[in-house]
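Hi V.,

Quick status before I head out on leave. The structure for the redesign project is tokenized and pasted below; the design run finished overnight.
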């Protein structure tokens, strides 16, 4: 399966989950899965991660495509030498697109995963992609990049 198809499928999954949250969960507010531990809670996030930069929609609408273009440039120029780093960037791209769609369509990002036991901010599937992608990319950059810098990049 091609990388583009996998990214599109990840975005579709994110959007389907958010669509369900927007159309069904919003009317309920919250559904306890494990009471006081994990709930599905409908939240409209007008900011970024952890609700920082609230009501800065235009900033996100401007910056997200610029960041996405930078990631695509890095991938196109094969500046990331290991699959670990490339997969990290693919995940970041999928998450960025998923949340960008929400900002364009709704004016906010739909969040729903609510870990109440640790009072963690409510998040969504695209956020999971971004966090996993950043983690993989940091691992690549801190551990693998220098070792592979002189080796010819491999295709996926």
């Amino acid at each position: 399966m091609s990388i583009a198809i996998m990214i599109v499928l990840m975005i579709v999954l994110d959007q389907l989950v958010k669509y369900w949250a927007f159309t069904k969960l919003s009317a309920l507010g919250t559904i306890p899965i494990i009471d006081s531990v994990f709930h599905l809670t409908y939240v409209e996030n007008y900011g970024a991660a952890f609700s920082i930069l609230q009501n800065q929609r235009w900033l996100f609408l401007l910056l997200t495509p610029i960041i996405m273009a930078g990631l695509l440039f890095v991938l196109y120029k094969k500046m990331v030498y290991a699959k670990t780093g490339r997969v990290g960037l693919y995940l970041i791209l999928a998450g960025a697109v998923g949340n960008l769609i929400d900002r364009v369509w709704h004016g906010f990002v739909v969040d729903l995963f609510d870990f109440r036991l640790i009072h963690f901010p409510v998040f969504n599937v695209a956020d999971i992609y971004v966090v996993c992608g950043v983690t993989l990319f940091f691992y690549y950059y801190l551990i693998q990049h220098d070792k592979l810098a002189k080796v010819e990049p491999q295709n996926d």
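Above is the designed sequence. The beta strands are 30-34, 38-45, 109-115.

G. will cover questions while I'm gone.

Best,
W.
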